[in-house]
Amino acid sequence: MSTVLVLIHHDDGIIRKPSLELLTLARRLGEPAAVVHGGAGEALIDALGRYGVTTVYSITPPEPPSYRPMVEALALADLAASTAPAAVLVSSGPGGTEVAARVAVRLDAGIITGAVDVTTGPDGPVVTQSVFAGGWFTESRVRRGTPVITVRPNAVTAEPAPEPAHAAVRTVTAEPVSAAVPRVVASRAKAATGRPGLADATVVVAGGRGAGSAEGFAVIERLADALGGAVGASRAATDLTWCPHDLQIGQTGKTVAPQLYLAGGISGAIQHRAGMQGSRTIVAINKDPKAPIFQIADFGVVGDLHTVVPALIDEIRKRRG
Ligand code: FAD
């Protein structure tokens, strides 16, 4: 069976959810081999084994004082050149897309970005992309070289392998790249909010133009905190600078698929739906009973979010004691 190289991102040994999703997808295509940058400790190797990884390529030095995507891209490209995998899988997002693009250039291979599914075909992996705001799906395949594929977070549900594998670790010495690196990461700061990231959250509370103002948007954040969830937003809310752009959900923002998606003051434009319609349960609060978001909502409250959301927060607090 061919191997599938998967770039793994982790926080101090805890594998990030999008990487677990990549491993789940990789098992459908072949034998997952993980490429880890930042030291592969025992717990991390065990966790990779539970997701069916048979080989872990540990890139050293663990944290060189250089720009990480470049180090990852060089290591991945070298490994792909020497092991001829069925595909290279990287999670979508600004960092991942940069790595994948660099790998494809170095391999002189084709790249497909933003996949929502990958299956095996007679001539190699077949990649599904969602286009026109989720209205259509396309299937494509790479015709030149090792397919390099970026996969959208939340497109696949992460599931451990039915049989855990024993992962063998191989150390890969990273090429010195500092001279060629245009940027240097001086320090990394964790987000100060203490909230989960959008990609990892099981609950997302998103606000839109209906919040009325930056101050009004704060009620959305308070509900997210009461539920231990992440904050998301429509493009209208981010364009109005009521919250940072990286919280935008939709066609030109992030794709989320939490257990619970709560939308307050969001109309449900097709471009917004493209980023959240895979959520397990959708709750919408909107004062317009004809708002399109109600067409996809499992539960809807017709009302002013400035009345409904504070009442909801009070109720959650009461029930939690
Ligand atoms: P609106 O459409 O203005 O809706 C506001 C809603 O709030 C209304 O339904 C209203 O009834 C309700 N409301 C008002 N006051 C209250 C209140 N007090 N209480 C309760 N409800 C209230 N959008 C995205 O979100 N993500 C994207 O990635 C994205 N990409 C795009 C890409 C392209 C190429 C284009 C053309 C557009 C894109 N958009 C995207 C924009 C999208 O078309 C919509 O304009 C946007 O989603 C609207 O945001 P909204 O629902 O917050 O605002």
Automatic annotation (TrEMBL):
<keyword id="KW-0813">Transport</keyword>
<dbReference type="Pfam" id="PF00766">
    <property type="entry name" value="ETF_alpha"/>
</dbReference>
<keyword id="KW-0274">FAD</keyword>
<dbReference type="InterPro" id="IPR014730">
    <property type="entry name" value="ETF_a/b_N"/>
</dbReference>
<feature type="domain" description="Electron transfer flavoprotein alpha/beta-subunit N-terminal">
    <location>
        <begin position="4"/>
        <end position="193"/>
    </location>
</feature>
<comment type="subunit">
    <text>Heterodimer of an alpha and a beta subunit.</text>
</comment>
<dbReference type="GO" id="GO:0009055">
    <property type="term" value="F:electron transfer activity"/>
</dbReference>
<comment type="similarity">
    <text>Belongs to the ETF alpha-subunit/FixB family.</text>
</comment>
<dbReference type="InterPro" id="IPR001308">
    <property type="entry name" value="ETF_a/FixB"/>
</dbReference>
<keyword id="KW-0249">Electron transport</keyword>
<dbReference type="GO" id="GO:0050660">
    <property type="term" value="F:flavin adenine dinucleotide binding"/>
</dbReference>
<feature type="binding site">
    <location>
        <begin position="234"/>
        <end position="235"/>
    </location>
    <ligand>
        <name>FAD</name>
    </ligand>
</feature>
<feature type="binding site">
    <location>
        <position position="209"/>
    </location>
    <ligand>
        <name>FAD</name>
    </ligand>
</feature>
<dbReference type="InterPro" id="IPR018206">
    <property type="entry name" value="ETF_asu_C_CS"/>
</dbReference>
<dbReference type="InterPro" id="IPR029035">
    <property type="entry name" value="DHS-like_NAD/FAD-binding_dom"/>
</dbReference>
<dbReference type="Pfam" id="PF01012">
    <property type="entry name" value="ETF"/>
</dbReference>
<keyword id="KW-0285">Flavoprotein</keyword>
<feature type="binding site">
    <location>
        <begin position="248"/>
        <end position="252"/>
    </location>
    <ligand>
        <name>FAD</name>
    </ligand>
</feature>
<dbReference type="GO" id="GO:0033539">
    <property type="term" value="P:fatty acid beta-oxidation using acyl-CoA dehydrogenase"/>
</dbReference>
<feature type="binding site">
    <location>
        <position position="286"/>
    </location>
    <ligand>
        <name>FAD</name>
    </ligand>
</feature>
<protein>
    <submittedName>
        <fullName>Electron transfer flavoprotein alpha subunit apoprotein</fullName>
    </submittedName>
</protein>
<feature type="binding site">
    <location>
        <begin position="265"/>
        <end position="272"/>
    </location>
    <ligand>
        <name>FAD</name>
    </ligand>
</feature>
<comment type="function">
    <text>The electron transfer flavoprotein serves as a specific electron acceptor for other dehydrogenases. It transfers the electrons to the main respiratory chain via ETF-ubiquinone oxidoreductase (ETF dehydrogenase).</text>
</comment>
<dbReference type="InterPro" id="IPR014731">
    <property type="entry name" value="ETF_asu_C"/>
</dbReference>
<dbReference type="InterPro" id="IPR014729">
    <property type="entry name" value="Rossmann-like_a/b/a_fold"/>
</dbReference>
